[in-house]
Structures are given as structure tokens and as C-alpha cells.
Write the C-alpha cells for this entry.
Amino acid sequence: MAKKRALPQSGSPSSKKQETNYEAIRTTKTSSAGLDRLTGIITQYGILECLACNLTAKDLFSLALTSRTAHQAILTNEESRLNLTKRSKCDSTGIRIRSKHHRKSSWFHKYPCTEYATCGSEDKLRDVESHPCASCGVNTCDECRIHCVYQSIHLPRDAPDELPYYSGFVLLNPPEMGILSPQQFGEDEEWEEPINGVAKPYHDQGYLDTALEDDEYADVESIEGIITLNLGRDDIEGNHSSGWHVPSAVVRAFWDITEQRKRLLCPTCFEKHADEDNWHMHDDDGMCQCTLKSRFLDRWICLKCFLEEEKSDQEFPHGVKKCQDVSNCSCGDVFTTYRCPRVLCLWCKGEVRQ
């Protein structure tokens, strides 16, 4: 006669194991049901658009990897993907890049200075403008995009009859630069001071001075004058007198990046790489009309794409950089009086006057 298998008693190891298995199955079913509900929501595009407004582009990508349905709804269709990333909130990448490159001076820690560099998606005190990056399409706030001059540091006035001090950074160059407000030049425009911790940064405005920890003297430069200078016709050298370095210490960072965009090419190579399709960026003779403003401000570019574009300029394999002391093109053609090199602008693929 077959023996009946004894049922596990409550509290026995076998009983506990069965209870654990039942709980695991119940949890799995609950998780699966929750995932099914989420998948159902994602397939409703109107809801997905609303959801995207509260997620970063990275969050959207992570969500797309949760299931095949989510991947299809978010990433498969390019038009849909671009629309969702444009609606997403800024992810503070630009602020992290700025903090990595910019170096505050010792004056910042010595005096009661305040820095205003907060991503728009995290700033609860003021409304920060955001737009999709013109290069990658990811929504980027005004604090995370590239600026020619970041006016981000403020030192309050010591007395009622004095003016506050301002400083900031040029592009992603490390040193903290002095910035003067229009009022410090006797102009009528007055910059508002922070109220209850809320400050409006005056990026790309005012007058640029030398680095706060730089002993080299140079004239103050109008930021408007710097960023609107026609780079196809003129070099950014700054105001200078006999014996001063060229370019001046104030505009050196701008000089570096604008010279980096130039390549000397033989006439044959120049014709090969010049782009006549960019006619709207050239004058009638195909000459470069670039300005720092048109390159970095009229285009809304995130800092990640700015770094990629800068790297692309540095690694451009054709021609030779203007700073190089060479007498031949990268193709081997020798520069002569009869075959003079032509200067290509890598930003617009037009010709730069020599």
C-alpha cells in the first residue's frame, strides 16, 4: 500500500519555501501587469508627449528600452523621436560641462561673491528659456547652451554710492574674466541686482576685462563689438598699443577659436572643399561673413555639440593651420607666388581675406 506524502507543516522549511515561491509569482504577475499598463499608456501618443515634458532625453531613451512596444513608440519613427526630444526638459549637461571647464578665481572665495549657474529645469526661482539644440535636437536651456561670454558671478556693492562687480567666463575657457556693466561706462542702462537670491545673468553683454588673476594689462573691450566683428574680413586682435601682445589678453580666447577655423589650401584643394551651397553665409564673391554671434548665438547649440564641433575643426584633415610655418598644402602642392594659398573658413566653407 502506497504511503501518502505528508503535507509540510506550517513553519517548516518546506512550507516557507513554498510561500516564498508563491510570493515571487504574485510579485512577478503584479510587475507584469504594471508594465502592461505602462506599455498601454506609451502607445497613446498624446499621453507620451505630455510624459516627455517631464523627462530628459536620457530618461526617454531609458524608457524606450523597457519593452519592444516602448522602443517602437519612442525611437523607431524619426519624426516622433525628434518631436519627443524637443519636448523633453533640459538634463543639466551644459551646467556640468561648464563647472568642469570654468575655474573661479581666488577672489570668488575671498569676497561674498555669488555664482548664478543653474539649469533651467532645476531653477524654481526664474523662468529660463529653452529651445532644441540646432545640431542634435535635444531641448537645451539658456544656461546649458554655448554663450560667447557667461556673466555668471556677482559681487554686491560695498556702499550705496558704489556699483556692483561682475565677472564670468569666455566660452569654455577656464579663467574668470572681469565684466563691466554699461553703467560703469557712464551709460544709462543699469543692470538689475539680485533680489531674494534671484538674478538675471547678462550673458554676451557689457564690456570684457582681463582675467582677474592675470597681471597682463589690456584695454577693456566691448562684447558687442567682439561678437559682431566680420571674421571674413578682420581678425580679433583687440585694442593694443606698441609693445602690447597681439592679440590682447582680453580677446585671446576668441582669437584662438577663430584662428582655429582657418585652413590654408592650394587653389585646387580650396575649390574642392569650398561650399557654394552656403551662399547665404557668404558675400557676392563667396567670402566668409561669419561672426561669433552668428556662429554661437544665432544658432542655439548645446555645450556637448559645441565641444564636438570644436573637435571636428581641430581634426579637419585637409590644408594646414595658419599658425603652422609650412610652405606646402597637405596634398603636397607647394605654395608659390603664382599659386598662393587660399584661406578656407571651416564654419561656412567660404574664403577668408588674407
In short: The chain has two domains: 39-88, 93-352.
